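Before relying on records like the one below, remember that each one covers exactly one chain. Contacts with other chains, cofactors or solvent are not represented anywhere in the record.
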Amino acid sequence: MSECVMIVTGESSGELYGSLLARSLQRRLPGIRITGIGGERMKAAGVELISGISGAFGLTEVISSLGTLRLTFNKAVGALSGDRPAVLVLVDYPDFNLRLAREAKKNNIRILYYVSPQVWAWRKSRVKKIASLVDRMAVILPFEEAIYRESGLETEFVGHPVLDEIQEITATDRNWIKRSLGLKDDRPLMSVLPGSRRNEISRLLPLVPAVVREFEREFGDFQFCVPFAPNTEMGHYSGGVEELRRMGVTVNRGESLKTLAASDVAVVASGTASLQAVFLGVPIVVMYRLFPLTYWLGKMIVRVRHISLVNILSGHEVVKELLQGKVTSANIIGELRRIVKDESYRGKMLASYEEVKRMFAGKKASDRVAGIVMEMAGWK
C-alpha cells in the first residue's frame, strides 16, 4: 500500500488545519510522503504542493476564479492517478472537494472528509451526497456528529484544530509575544483582523484607519496592530497598509494568532478568528461584509440566526455581530467602548467563553485525525 497521504485545502483556515495535520502525521510516521493543495503553512509543514490554494467565496468571487479552479482540479486529479495516496484527506471546501472525491472513488482511494461544510446552515441535502462519496468524517463542532451519523456515515467529533496552536501560544509569556511582534509590552493592545479572503479584506480594510483614529482619540494609552493571513498577497493592499503604518499601526503577515493572543480587545472578521478569541479569552466585536448580491442570496437560503461560531455554539448573542451596512466605524467604536468600559458586559462575555471552551475539553483534533488516517491506511 502507498505510504503517501494527500491533503486538499481551499482557503486560509483549512490550510492551517492541513498544516497541523501534516505535522502530526510526520511526528507519528517520520519519512511519510504528504502531497496536497495548500499554501505557505502546508509547504513549511513538509507538504509537497501540487498547487497553491485558490479559494473563492461568494458568487461573484467564484465566477472570477473559475479558470484557476479548473487548472488546480486537473492537477489534483492527475496526482491521484500518479501518486495513488493511501488516504485522501479533504478539508472543507465542498464544491471543489466533493468533485475530487468522485475521482478518488473511481480509483478506489480511501477518503476522509475533515471539517464539515456548514450543512447545518444551508443545503443540508449535501449530507447524503457526502455520505455516498467518502469513507469517514471528522467534524470539528460538537453538534455536527449527530447530523452525519443519521446518514450512516462513520463520523467522529475530534475537537477544533485551532486549539492545537493555541495551547502552544498560551504557554508563552504575553509580554514576550508583544515584544516579538514589535509592540510595547507596557501598553494595552487593540487589534483588527480583517479576514483572510481577498474580498473580505478589500471591503473591511478601508474602515480600519477611522476605527483606529477614533479609538485612539478616546483611549490614548492603547497601541494597535493589524495582522494579515500568511497567504495574503500584500501588494493588493499596499495603499491601505502604508496609511496604517504612517498612523503608527503595526502591520504583520502570518502572525494573526500571536497578535490576537497579545490583544486586550479586538475587531475580527467572522470566521476562525472569532473562535480563537474565545480560547484566548479576548473580548471581540465581529464584522462581516459581502458583495451585496452574495449577501442577499445568502439571506434567502441560510438558516442560522448568528454568523460567528461563539454565538452559534452558545445559542445566543455573546459577541456583537455587525453585518453589511452596520459595519461602520461608529458602530465598531460603540461596541469597543462598551467592552472596555463596562466591566459587567465584558465579564458576561468572558463567562460565556468558558461555556464554549468546555465543549472542546480534552480534544486534540490534529492528533486524532492523524490517528484516523493511519487506521484507514492500515498503518500501525
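The CA atoms of residues 60 and 294 lie 7 Å apart.
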